[in-house]
TrEMBL record:
<dbReference type="Pfam" id="PF02602">
    <property type="entry name" value="HEM4"/>
</dbReference>
<dbReference type="GO" id="GO:0033014">
    <property type="term" value="P:tetrapyrrole biosynthetic process"/>
</dbReference>
<feature type="domain" description="Tetrapyrrole biosynthesis uroporphyrinogen III synthase">
    <location>
        <begin position="22"/>
        <end position="235"/>
    </location>
</feature>
<dbReference type="GO" id="GO:0004852">
    <property type="term" value="F:uroporphyrinogen-III synthase activity"/>
</dbReference>
<dbReference type="InterPro" id="IPR036108">
    <property type="entry name" value="4pyrrol_syn_uPrphyn_synt_sf"/>
</dbReference>
<protein>
    <submittedName>
        <fullName>Uroporphyrinogen-III synthase</fullName>
    </submittedName>
</protein>
<dbReference type="InterPro" id="IPR003754">
    <property type="entry name" value="4pyrrol_synth_uPrphyn_synth"/>
</dbReference>
Length: 246
């Protein structure tokens, strides 16, 4: 079956130069962007239930820009003045630079790695082993913090935001030939929104091994998977798929 309409379960790209637009023009397909999941911040009241006192910490660990946003939002809502002495440890340079939205960057102690891995941040954390770390996370996160436990890092995991299903509205059209997913929660949201979903001729593509497993666990057929050696990105995989099937 020829693919004419593709749903990408991510927000619309900020740039018109996105490879998705090139693919749409190249193969004459319609590509729509609609996240199946969305992020909600915990309210100050909800966060207080965790009995975490922000003033107890001398440093904070960030593994996502979303965590930065919700950390400072909660600080403001709880009327907690972030001290100038607070240290920031980030798993990417982009996250570190993003801190400039909230603080005067050059006047703060900020440490980062470029790999996106908490493991690679460990040497800096160990070097500052007297700090009391706050680790800002979502309710859905991997167990990367195990490395903090194994190395006796003095930290507290603080859930500051959660990932929920971005529900389709009654009457909202769902007439796609292909669906692209980027997380297992996207699959969960699909089945929550459409409990009687039948794949039939709809093609399903995904990014990442855990998402691929979620597709199979749901009893669905996986038609396209990324990354691969030939297709390191979702757009590269989609290009190759449409070239072969359209």
């Amino acid at each position: 079956m020829k693919v004419k309409k593709v749903l990408v379960s991510q927000p619309k790209p900020a740039s018109e130069k996105s490879p998705y637009y090139e693919i749409a023009e190249k193969y004459g397909v319609e590509i729509e962007f609609r996240p199946f999941i969305k992020v909600e911040g915990l309210t100050a009241k909800e966060f207080r239930q965790s009995r975490i006192n922000l003033s107890d910490f001398t440093a904070v660990i960030f593994t996502a820009r979303t965590a930065v946003d919700h950390f400072f939002r909660l600080c403001e809502e709880m009327r907690y003045s972030v001290p100038d002495t607070l240290k920031y440890f980030c798993t990417t340079e982009a996250i570190a630079n993003y801190l400039q939205k909230y603080i005067v960057y050059r006047k703060r102690k900020i440490f980062f790695v470029t790999t996106g891995k908490l493991d690679d941040l460990l040497p800096s954390l160990l070097k500052h082993n007297k700090e009391r770390y706050l680790y800002a996370v979502s309710d859905v996160h991997n167990d990367a913090a195990n490395i903090l436990d194994r190395n006796n890092i003095n930290y507290t995991k603080a859930v500051m935001y959660r990932t929920v299903s971005n529900d389709f509205q009654p009457g909202e059209p769902f007439d796609y030939d292909m669906l692209l997913f980027f997380s297992p929660m996207g699959i969960d949201s699909l089945l929550k929104n459409f409990p009687e979903f039948h794949q039939n001729d709809i093609q399903i593509g995904c990014f990442g091994a855990t998402t691929a497993q979620a597709v199979r666990n749901a009893g669905l057929r996986l038609d396209m998977e990324a990354p691969t050696q030939k297709a390191p990105s979702m757009t590269a995989a989609l290009d190759a798929f449409l070239k072969e099937h359209n």
